[in-house]
Amino acid sequence: MNELIALSAAEAAERVRAGEIDPGELFDAYRQRAAADDLNAFTWVADEAPRDHDYAHTPLGGVPVAVKDLFCTEGVPSQSGSKILEGYRPPYSATVVRNLAEAGAPLLGKTNQDEFAMGSSNENSAFGPVLNPWDRRRVPGGSSGGSAAAVAAGLAPWAIGTDTGGSIRQPAALCGVVGLKPTYGACSRYGMIAFASSLDQAGPFTRNVTDAALLFRHMVGQDRRDSTSLEFPEPIELPRGEDLKGVRLGIPEELVGADAGVDPGVRASFDETLRLAEELGATLEPCQLPHASHALSAYYLIAPAEASANLARFDGVRYGLREDGASDLTTMYSRTREVGFGPEVQRRIMLGTYALSSGYYDAYYGKAQKVRTKIAEDFRGAFERFDFVITPTSPWTAFELGSKTHDPLAMYLNDFCTVPMSLAGIPAISIPSGLSEGLPVGFQLAGPAFSEPRLLAAAYALEQAIGFDGSPARA
Amino acid sequence: MGAPPVPDYEPVIGLEIHVQLDTRTKMFCGCELSFGDPPNIHTCPTCLGLPGALPVLNARAIHFGIMIGLALGCDIAERSLFHRKNYFYPDNPKAYQISQYDVPLCRGGRLGDVRIHRVHLEEDAAKLNHLGASGRIHGSDRSWVDFNRCGTPLVEIVSEPDIHSAEQARDWLILLRTTLRQLGVSDVDMSQGSLRCDANVSIRPAGSTELGTKTELKNMNSFAYVAKGIEAEIERQKRLLDLGEPVVQETLHFDPVTGSLTPLRSKEEAHDYRYFPEPDLVPLLASADMVAAARADLPTELPAERAARFEQELGLHADTARLFAFRAELGDYFERALAAAGANGGAGLEPVELSNWIAPLIERIGSDADPAESNVSPESLATLATMVKTKEVSRDAAREVLTHLVAEGGDPRRIVEREGLGAISAEDDGLGEIVDRAIAADPAAAEQVRAGNMKAIGPLVGFVMRETKGRADGGEITRLIRQRLQ
Amino acid sequence: MLDRDQVLHVARLARLELSEEEVERMAAELSHVLDHIEKIRELDLEGVAPTSHVIDVVNVLRADEPEPSLPREAVLAAAPEPLMDGFGVPSPGAA
User: Fold this and answer.
1) Which residues of chain A lie closer than 8 angstroms to B141, CB-CB?
2) What residues contact residue A377 under an 8 Å CB cut-off, 6+ apart?
3) CB-based contact A309 B84, cutoff 8 Å
4) What is the mean pLDDT of the segment spanning A31-44?
5) What does residue B380 show for φ and ψ, rounded to 5 degrees?
6) Preferred mutation among C1, C17, C85 to probe A, highest tally of A CBs within 10 A
7) Residue B477 confidence (pLDDT)
8) What is the predicted pLDDT for the residue at B396?
9) To the nearest 5 percent, what fractions of chain A are helix, strand and coil?
10) How far apart are CA B84 and CA B102, in angstroms?
11) Model confidence pLDDT, tens digit, residues A373-392
12) How far apart are CA B109 and CA B73, in angstroms?
């Protein structure tokens, strides 16, 4: 059994396609592990894979995928980590989930997350926090903490999550796995329970870069149900190159400099990565993203504003929780939402409502949208001189449960290095660079829109050089 | 007199019209439009506002929107945006309506004598029904929502406040309906709600250029109610101002049964819709091709153009021209009759002479009826008008013929013959003899006419009319009387 | 920065029934976050166009062709108060 689990997803898919592994056995091996999950990574686990598929003739070979709770899955609980959607089973499935199922990756289970993807520690889930498999006293990061932990712990061969301001990259870093936030528009958002529509993007969690490329290849594509989705302009090949000759890396001072508050252990691992990159032939130079230090502020206006509208539909009328006992409509609404939403969600709804309200729009939301323009310009400028920018993914490693819950602002700083790319809509990948005091550290590579194939190739070369062994947690 | 002078007020009225577009599917999803179907059978994740669902614009709704903009002479925005308008209500499943805000599809324009402010696209709300005997909102305890209508494409047309009376508002709305109907973009049926009209009403002292405080009137679901509601509101505001009390800016609900206006409870107490650009929809670019395609689908002549043609080319009175153009069925009937008159030679019948016979016709068939569906064919009406022109029948007798035609149809010539309604002309010996009898019967009047007082001729003419049962031509009678009394 | 009345006003707009204690806490937390966010107000962004969409796409339109709707059972499956084949709510007109 452990032999199956030890295979990477791409290897497992190849073996199924070669007729060497029975996809039913593979599914069952993971199903059992997911069902025995003691990290609270799963909120629901499938009984079996759909049998109407000849997995040996599919590109993903029946290798099952764990799916973040906020993806709608027909007839299967899709709760976005919220009490207000407890037990909700939608009548349709998200496009990305359908794409993967058609490519031969059946649904293994739904993974725990911060409520409505708002959080960086997975402590905001209505279904309890997820534990980091590297140290169960610590958080896995968030908001896609369940997906990250499941892949790190070998409870799933791979998983998908969503990233709005860092929700794939940060938990990937804290759990020692690969996480890709694609270009905005590369993957359909149809069926993703929205947090911030102009930022949300689905992406893969995998044990290695090759698996990420393979899964990503089958997630992308224009969807006629999502006006903001685009056809990926080129085929996504599995990465091969093992050097970085001629690759120019920019190190943004605003995100990496002394003021950025990067933890020394993370810093050391990052410096080691830079050294390896140079060895592989890359050229490194500092670069400027003059508005990046304002990204967090812009993000914490734009995302809550959009969320305040996206979450208004949870009103107790058509689905989900209704807090009864009120004879009048307004009280029914207010009680339902008060009882159904957790504190962080309420805080962001309040912040977003305020930022859009009469008299404040120009000063807050309007201004934040202009900052967004400047940040995108900053990146365009940087990419005239550099192929990619490189930063630590998170300023620190996995922190202890409860250590940051008292201070929302401190929690928001988790996203310091990841939100600029989200605001610019550009792709970024986090891959493990090593350990610091026994905990995984990740670094982030970001490139221009639709540069994922080159980004994955560079990440692959670094991954080979780093030789990170993410397996201890899967023992 | 002792009463203080009553100030004269000028009403200032602007209309906001919502029109359901006659597309096959909803604005943002593929659910079919329906009316009167069982509840909640035309819904999907998008129009139910299910978590994760997204909107995609209906191309035909955009096409119709551009057609309306062109027909109303608007500038079509090259680039327009959709916004979210946030408010909680059970008929609004996402708790935001997707609408257009500061960058609408169309701006400016004019229809008839009223300028257009803007035209934009949005989605309709669901239908909220109320339990209980009355089916009305007040007094009901539970309500239930049917989402079949939710997401129906709507166009909102906002006029400038160029309207100054209730009648003008009604007439303009009729013109708008005719225009939209001719475009084929909507059923424009007020009773079914596919055309809805709200009015912003204020009054100001005549001659003033400042605007008074306005109120918004809702629920006027017929043309008659639009006139009634606005009239009632103008009167209410006049009473307030005459008493020295202020008009309060509020939304009023018109009750067609009682004709009363009651303040409406607002959907969102604070009225802060927190508009922001809809991130799920990309900007709309009305390309030259899209505008050309919309232009190609416009009818060759819109009602306002038709009214101008009737007035300027055919010489109809302005009011008649507008009536015929704005009520397309009257204009169509008139033009068919005109063509028939031309085909018959027409005896030099002027269009305006023919047009004068439409009013007596609709008087007889009912003011809302379509004459094309009456017993009177356009050819018959043309024949009748021509007979009057050629003095084959007097005007009064022709009216009687028309009554017969409305009742039984047929050929006017045969009715004239059958009923003996043919004109008695001067050459007819009989007419001279009757004129002589008239003079003999009223020597006093005859004396006055002889003395030059032409007003006294009336009783003499009347005598002859009575004797001939209206078959003689009035002008001819007058001529004969004067001939004898000079 | 954000006072009690503002918090109550925003909570009303957002349809959140905050307890007395939550109002106080929310005022403090939001003020703290806004203090940090305020920094962007220092930026001179005169003449900068706002970004509402990061992708350069326009005119995504759908042909006006019907697609199947959901069966009513599926539509009402999650309804907290199914009523008359629809979704029951407290009447907005009720006292």
Assistant:
1) 327
2) none
3) yes
4) 97
5) -65, -40
6) C17
7) 84
8) 85
9) 40, 15, 45
10) 12
11) 999 999 999 999 999 999 99
12) 4
Which chain A residue has its CA at the smallest distance from B90's CA? A317
Nearest to B471 by CA among B418, B405, B416: B416
C45-76 pLDDT, tens per residue? 999 999 999 988 999 999 999 999 999 999 99
* Burial zone of B210 (CB within 10 Å; 0-12 exposed, 13-18 middle, 19+ buried): exposed
Q: To the nearest whole angstrom, how far is the Cα of C18 from the nearest Cα of chain A?
A: 7
Cβ density class A148-185: b for 16+ within 10 Å, e for less: bbbbbbbbbbbbbbbbbbbbbbbbbbbbbbbbbbbbbb
The predicted structure's pLDDT at residue B300: 86
Partners of B54 on chain A (C-beta within 8 Å) are 189-190, 225-227
Domain ranges of chain A: 2-245+387-474, 293-367
Q: Do A445 and A398 form a contact (C-beta atoms < 8 A)?
A: no
The residue extents of the domains of chain B are 11-296, 303-419, 429-485
Only one residue has tokens 């400099």, namely A257
- Cα separation, B67 vs B50, in Å, equals 32
pLDDT above 50: residue B267: no
How far is it, in rounded angstroms, from Cα B359 to Cα A118?
70
Helix (H, G, I), strand (E, B) or coil at B196: strand
CB contact under 8 A, C77 and A368: no
**Active-site residue set of A:** 68, 143, 167
User: A383 CA to chain B: closest CA distance, Å?
Assistant: 26
Structure confidence by residue, pLDDT tens digits, B183-205 = 999 999 999 999 999 999 999 99
Share above pLDDT 90 across residues of chain A, in percent, rounded to a whole number: 91
Mean pLDDT of B354-375: 91
Q: Which of residues 165-204 of A touch C (CB under 8 A)?
A: 184-185, 198
Q: List the single residue in C52, C66, C68 with the smallest CB-CB distance to B277.
A: C52
Query: Does A89 sit within 8 Å of C78, measured CB to CB?
Result: yes
Q: Is A182 helix (H, G, I), strand (E, B) or coil?
A: coil
Residue A38 contacts C where some CB pair is shorter than 8 Å: no
Please write the tens of the pLDDT for every residue from B402-432.
999 999 998 998 988 888 777 776 666 678 8
Distance CA A213, CA A237 (A): 7
Mean pLDDT for the stretch of residues B344-370: 86
- Which residues are CB-neighbours of B449 under 8 A, at least 6 positions away? B456, B457, B460, B481, B482, B485
Out of A189, A306, A357, the one facing B54 most closely (by C-beta) is: A189
Residue in B52, B86, B145 closest to A193 by CB: B52
Q: Decide if domain A2-245+387-474 falls under CATH 3.90.1300.10.
A: yes
Of A67, A115, A315, A321, which to mutate for an interface test with B (greatest number of B Cβ within 10 Å)?
A315
Query: At the topology level of CATH, where does B429-485 sit?
Result: Arc Repressor Mutant, subunit A (1.10.10)
Who's near A472: CB < 8 A, 6+ residues apart? A134
**pLDDT, position B1:** 45
> Predicted confidence band at B5 (pLDDT cuts at 50, 70, 90)?
low
Instruction: Report the C-alpha gap between B207 and B226 in whole angstroms.
Output: 25
Domains in chain C, ordered, with CATH?
1-41 (1.10.20.60)
Chain C: residue whose CA lies nearest to A423: C54
- Closest chain C residue to the Cα of A224, Cα to Cα: C62
Does A7 score more than 50 pLDDT?
yes
CB B328 within 8 Å of CB B349? no
Arithmetic mean of pLDDT, C22-41? 92
| Tokens linked to A395 | 């300023």
* Tens of pLDDT, residues A91-131: 999 999 999 999 999 999 999 999 999 999 999 999 999 99
Give ipTM to 2 decimals: 0.96
**C51 and A326 in contact by Cβ < 8 A?**
no
